[in-house]
Amino acid sequence: MPKKSFRQAINEALAMEMRRDPTVVLMGEDVAGGAGAAGEDDAWGGPLGVTKGLMPEFGRDRILDTPISESAFIGAAAGAAATGLRPVAELMFVDFMGVCLDQIYNQAGKFRYMFGGKAVTPMVVRTMYGAGFRAASQHSQCLYPVFTHMPGLKVAIPSSPYEAKGLLIQAIRDDDPVIFFEHKVMYDDEEEVPDEAYTIPFGEANLTREGDDVTIVALGRMVQFANQVADKLEGEGITCTVVDPRTTSPMDEDTILECVEETGRLVIVDEASPRCNIATDVSALVSERAFGALKAPIRMVTPPHTPVPFAAELEDLYIPNPERIEEAVRSVMGHQA
Amino acid sequence: MSEAASIQAITMPKWGLAMEEGKVSAWMAEEGAAIDSGEEILEIETTKITNVFESPVAGTLRRRVVAEGETVPVGALLGVAAAVDTPDDAIEAFIADFQASFVVEASDAAEAPEPEMITVARRQLCHLRMGPEQGPAVILVHGFGGDIESWLFNQPVLAESHRVYALELPGHGRAEKNVEGLDVATLAMLLADYMDAAGTGPAHLVGLSLGGGIVMKLALDQPERVTALSLLAPAGLGPELNMDFIEGFIAAERRKEIKGLLGQLFADPELVSRDMVDKVQKFKRLDGVKPSLRDLADSVFPGGHQALVMKDQLASLAMPVQVIWGDADAILPPAQSEGLPDNVQLRILEQIGHMPHMEAAGEVNRLIADFGD
């Protein structure tokens, strides 16, 4: 099977669904390389080259460069979805959600419910998230907990290229609004990705490692770190189950509970700000429904409650890293009940 | 014979194209024990499967070089066999020499043969060819839901002396997903067309499960193409089958369901590895796979029974025919092997499930390699 980058996997998912279904359209800032700008069309191929090649194949009728007005084009995508298209809108950085949130959560997210199931809103919002890109406080946040909080939205956070392609195709075929999170430092990650189209169902967690001692729940980029720690500690006889929920809405609660019931110890790794994030949510789930299985207090590995720093040294300190995950795993292993 | 020549290395085998290292999960022979060639002496765990390793040499097991739980690269020294009276220092010198000259071979993935697409009767199939050009031809045909990798323990071993082809049928592996108009008889015709397209010439046909039914049908219809017939837990010998398994396999999406189902294929469900489950799950997520498995099952197992039973016709076959079946097969009942005609050699393997070529790879490889040549 050929190796592909995360970027290629996303590009391939978009292209394959656009070929399969003429109602799929793309819209966003610079997705076609800047309408009306001087120079070659599609020269950039999107902000980080993700949509390159799509405009020449599908034309400007389906690849829509929009003005720098998220409130306008995210709203347009919601309306287009409610009236028969399957738009994939690109909210360049999720940090910009502040200017278009009404269109997402109060409009798109509520159409199905408020129109008694007669309206569907098959809309995808692709968006970049995450720290480590030296992009400062306004372009580095995670914010998926915010969308997870809002009923009517689905939230996907792929952890690898294979996952990205299958989850994005699923998102495009889904009849509800899906917020699709792409970590900006993962675009060059590579792994084997099938050439064919495939879907990964929402609400089904993936176990990237299976062990007996500690369950590590991790999201997006943090799955890689959790895997590294699991592999390292296996050499010492500490075996970990790593759970990648894949989607935080819907959330595969059963798998998380089953894994904790087997291992009795839980570490949650979340790159989002620590208050009201997915780590606290999973922690509440397990405390309420699997408390009796716990052999040690739950540990959460998260950033501090502060904006993402711009200084490189501070940004590196801010992001959860394998060393902190390893420390947390060792601490739950060492806990004396 | 010099002492050095009588000392023999036991090294980590290479099971399948992708295997680079293996873990010795258990030794089954003590130092000082007499071991026979073919005797199970080790249990080796790879990312794909855990399997027993049969000694390639006979003698006394003088040293276990690798301890239980250690992971070493393919080709690394696992143990040393020699005569019981070979001096210890000669053994030590042999080990020191081996270790000094051992280099991990760069992954030979670049030169290893790769599966290739092949057009057969206007269908896109996939096959993998291995082994010497002048060797006798063997063709491996997988079962329902299988693919080329089903033969990872068999094809490389048989290819030491045979020209071995593994084929992927429509709806499976990398082959096209269109299975319209296919049943056991038309699949047998497609196999004949494949033999022409790949230029195999007459061949020893080896079929597993549904693949067994397909090669049986081809041997009956066009015997001139078949030099020998090896039927592993074959379809085509009785109407019954475990339809719950087939329905479950078609429907399963979650890894737990898939793991449980794959466990039914083996007498020892522990053999099912994470990789095996992953691979099946990834295959089943591809567009078109589920409907094609559904259509194929409806065509070859209509109403939950095998559509084509050929037991009565086997007596007419002039080529050597053998049936290999595990007595713990939970998918196709081994009782269907009762009452086979005299020209068919029956080999029942004890405590083996529906995957004899994996669960008893060494024995099945010998039975195939020695048969019909």
Name of the top-level CATH class of the largest domain in chain B: Alpha Beta
Low-confidence stretches of chain A: none
Our count of domains of chain A comes out at 2
CATH fold annotation of the largest domain in chain A: Rossmann fold
**Could you tell me the radius of gyration of chain B in angstroms?**
22 Å
Question: Over all CA atoms, what is the radius of gyration of chain A?
Answer: 20 Å
What's the order of the H and E elements of chain B? Answer: HEEEEEEEEHEEEHEHEHEHHHHEEHH
Spatial order of the strands forming the largest sheet of chain A: 3-2-4-5-7-6-12
The CATH architecture of the largest domain in chain B: 3-Layer(aba) Sandwich
The global form of chain A is globular
The H/E string of chain A reads: EHEHEHEHHEHEHEEEEHEEHEHEHH
Helix content of chain A: 25-40%
Can you tag this structure with a few keywords?
A: 337 residues; alpha/beta; Rossmann fold; 7-stranded mixed β-sheet; 5-stranded mixed β-sheet; B: 373 residues; 2 domains; 8-stranded mixed β-sheet; 11 helices
Structure description:
The complex is a heterodimer of chains A (337) and B (373). Chain A is an alpha/beta fold. Chain A has two domains: 3-192, Rossmann fold, CATH 3.40.50.970; 206-334, Rossmann fold, CATH 3.40.50. Chain A has helices at 6-20, 54-58, 70-82, 101-107, 111-114, 144-149, 161-173, 222-234, 253-263, 278-289, 312-318, 322-334, and strands at residues 3-5, 24-28, 63-65, 86-93, 124-129, 154-156, 178-183, 190-192, 206-209, 214-218, 240-244, 247-249, 266-269, 299-301. Chain A has a seven-stranded mixed β-sheet, sandwiched between helices. A five-stranded mixed β-sheet of chain A has the order 9-11-10-13-14, with helices on both faces. In chain A, helix 3 runs parallel beside helix 4 (101-107), helix 8 crosses helix 12 and helix 9 (253-263) packs across helix 10 (278-289). The longest helix of chain A is centred in the first third of the chain and has 15 residues, at 6-20. The relative contact order of chain A is 0.12. The mean pLDDT of chain A is 95. Chain B has 373 residues and is of the alpha/beta class. Chain B folds into two domains: 3-108, RNA polymerase II/Efflux pump adaptor protein, barrel-sandwich hybrid domain (OB fold (Dihydrolipoamide Acetyltransferase, E2P), Beta Barrel); 115-369, Rossmann fold. Chain B is built from eleven helices and 16 strands. Chain B has helices at 3-6, 88-101, 155-158, 184-198, 210-221, 243-251, 255-263, 274-285, 289-300, 356-359, 361-369, and strands at residues 8-11, 21-27, 34-35, 40-45, 50-54, 59-64, 71-73, 77-82, 116-120, 123-130, 137-141, 163-168, 203-208, 226-232, 321-326, 344-349. In chain B, a hairpin with a 4-residue loop joins strand 4 and strand 5 (50-54). The longest helix of chain B is centred in the middle third of the chain and has 15 residues, at 184-198. The A-B interface holds A 162, 166, 194, 196-201, 204, 207, 210 and B 253-255, 274, 282, 285-288.
